[in-house]
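W.,

You were right to be curious about this one. When I first looked at the sequence I had no strong expectations either way, so I just let the prediction run and decided to look at it fresh. Below is the sequence, 129 residues in total, followed by the output.
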Amino acid sequence: MQNMDWYNNLNKPFLTPPDDIFTVAWIILYILIAAALIVFISNGINKDKIKGLLCFFIQIILNFAWSNVFFGMKNIVSALAVLVLMWIFILFTIILFYKHSKIAAYLLIPYFIWVTFAFYLNLGFLLLN
């Protein structure tokens, strides 16, 4: 676990949820993300699905990178850039998944909404600190 002193001392944007909400939200979101992937690949992987899988794994890498950049490196600007890229790749993933499985795409919508909210928070941290 990261040392949270730096984060706890930041000026927080309006609507910043309590830390416990983040934990619960991410547990639910990771379940939905995994379910989306399982549904997407459930009837096989073919050449037509490769772009969707590529976008999926890029956004997952960016997802994990964001925490390291924001909390580990304490770099709010770079974390915002990572978040923008993640948002774009989640959108691409949803579009590409939708072509093969509407359910898989719909399972990613809460994640997309949460990352949009995270953009608001990250931008708020940047402007307030």
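Here's what jumped out at me. Helices lie at 5-8, 19-41, 50-72, 76-98, 102-107, 109-128. And, maybe more interesting for your project: Residues 18-128 form one domain.

Coffee later to discuss?

I.
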